[in-house]
């Protein structure tokens, strides 16, 4: 039996077992590294009769390919996920730009998955190389030249060559490591509602742009779907306080006819923030996923960027281990930061440009977005390019 006072040794400690942290734990454990995973909330078991999780994500082809390699995608397929073949963008329902999977010679553009099921699918793959500390959180971080030590709320101490902070946008580890951030809160917030729809399972996700903000539909399994309604924060809070029946009525009034007959099952709201960590590592602590960057969810890229971080970081670590090098060395972490920070910033800035052009009613910008949508509607080449970029294969 290990005494609680003895320092426990691991190759790597990961704080946060959400989608990104769990994927990092799985990839590294499969390569033979000894991993400690610290998560404050247990993951819920799957129940096919229970309604979908309110938090859903659009997972692109690049993320799907990596998750398949890890064996988690196959587990998710045994639970619930919804592929979509078409992606539509429009301002007026009569001028819709449609991106088709066939345009990029694929049979789908992506999947809408429930966040808790993807997390569960990853956790189900953990073998003996992952030691789970859950429910648990960190109370202190100490760094030396060749290791980092975490103290948990249980009093246990874990020492490793590298600590990954994958504990989300409000990362406590990022603060303990002394890494600052840049960013702001957008004026808008978004309401997310799980709905039952009158249509059989749909193969299309769409987004309508209006001067007060976008309105989006994401298909889920069977006759369920998710809607995302972006509005000024005060209005979103008002909407979130309504009963499901009242919110259903508001949705039917505000959303385009494509939505059809719906009823709200559950809803919640989220503030919208942009955050970029000043650096992606400090000593032997490295950031991944939302702990490093949060992005406007407008184009559903957040966790896809997190998986791209996770894939590169784990490849660098596995390569270092293969060469018997230090898996927490500054050159390794520098190389990770050099590749991922500019890529994430580029996507964040593109989303901000999008938010500015599509989210207001200033006449020149209105004309610009009408022009952009009409050019996109006519140009097969442009549509193909956008679709390839959106699914993560460009
Ligand atoms: C409304 C909305 C819609 C979105 N839609 C999409 C989409 O369609 N596609 C997409 O790619 N992205 C989307 N995103 C973004 C996506 O949800 C995030 O990018 C993603 O959840 C980040 O994953 P993560 O694992 O980095 O962090 P999180 O999901 O935040 O996970 C962090 C984990 O760390 C744990 N934790 C936190 N603090 C501690 C602590 N101190 N100790 C131990 N554990 C801790 C938490 O319990 C959690 O399990 C959306 C976001 C919002 C708000």
TrEMBL record:
Membrane-crossing residue ranges in chain numbering: 12-33
Pathway: Cofactor biosynthesis; ubiquinone biosynthesis
GO CC annotation, single: ubiquinone biosynthesis complex
Oxidoreductase listed as a keyword: yes
Cofactor: FAD
Pfam families: FAD_binding_3
Gene3D superfamilies, A to Z: FAD/NAD(P)-binding domain
Signal sequence extent: none
Molecular-function GO terms, alphabetical: 3-demethoxyubiquinol 3-hydroxylase activity; FAD binding
Record GO biological process: ubiquinone biosynthetic process
Key words, A-Z: FAD, Flavoprotein, Membrane, Monooxygenase, Oxidoreductase, Transmembrane, Transmembrane helix
Domain FAD-binding: 11-343
Keyword Disulfide bond attributed: no
Subunit structure: Component of the Ubi complex metabolon, which regroups five ubiquinone biosynthesis proteins (UbiE, UbiF, UbiG, UbiH and UbiI) and two accessory factors (UbiK and the lipid-binding protein UbiJ).
Protein family according to the UniProt entry: Belongs to the UbiH/COQ6 family.
Name of the molecule in the record: FAD-dependent oxidoreductase
Source species taxonomy: Bacteria, Pseudomonadati, Pseudomonadota, Gammaproteobacteria, Chromatiales
């Amino acid at each position: 039996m290990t005494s609680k006072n003895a320092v426990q040794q691991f190759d790597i400690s990961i704080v946060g077992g959400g989608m990104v942290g769990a994927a990092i734990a799985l990839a590294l454990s499969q390569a033979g590294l000894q991993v400690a995973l610290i998560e404050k909330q247990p993951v819920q078991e799957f129940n096919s009769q229970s309604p979908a999780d309110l938090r859903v994500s659009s997972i692109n082809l690049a993320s799907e390919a990596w998750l398949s390699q890890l064996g988690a995608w196959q587990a998710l397929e045994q639970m619930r996920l919804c592929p979509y073949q078409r992606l539509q963008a429009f301002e007026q329902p009569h001028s819709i730009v449609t991106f088709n999977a066939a345009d990029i010679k694929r049979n789908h553009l992506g999947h809408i998955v429930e966040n808790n099921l993807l997390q569960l699918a990853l956790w189900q793959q953990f073998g003996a190389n992952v030691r789970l500390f859950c429910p648990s959180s960190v109370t202190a971080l100490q760094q030396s030249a060749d290791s980092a030590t975490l103290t948990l709320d249980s009093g246990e101490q874990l020492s490793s060559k590298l600590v990954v902070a994958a504990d989300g946008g409000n990362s406590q580890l990022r603060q303990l490591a002394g890494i600052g951030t840049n960013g702001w809160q957008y004026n808008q917030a978004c309401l997310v509602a799980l709905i039952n729809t009158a249509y059989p399972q749909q193969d299309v996700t769409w987004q309508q742009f209006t001067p007060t903000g976008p309105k989006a539909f994401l298909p889920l399994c069977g006759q369920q779907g998710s809607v995302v309604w972006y509005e000024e924060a005060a209005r979103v809070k008002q909407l979130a306080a309504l009963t499901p029946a009242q919110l259903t009525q508001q949705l039917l009034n505000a959303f385009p006819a494509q939505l059809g007959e719906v009823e709200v099952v559950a809803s919640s709201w989220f503030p919208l923030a942009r955050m970029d960590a000043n650096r992606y590592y400090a000593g032997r602590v490295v950031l991944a996923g939302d702990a490093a960057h949060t992005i406007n969810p407008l184009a559903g890229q957040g966790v896809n960027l997190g998986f791209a971080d996770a894939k590169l970081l784990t490849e660098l670590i596995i390569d270092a281990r293969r060469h018997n090098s230090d898996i927490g060395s500054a050159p390794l972490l520098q190389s990770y930061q050099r590749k991922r920070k500019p890529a994430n910033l580029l996507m964040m800035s593109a989303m901000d440009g999008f938010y500015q052009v599509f989210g207001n009613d200033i006449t020149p910008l209105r004309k610009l977005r009408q022009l952009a949508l009409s050019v996109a509607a006519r140009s097969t080449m442009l549509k193909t390019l956008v679709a390839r970029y959106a699914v993560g294969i460009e």
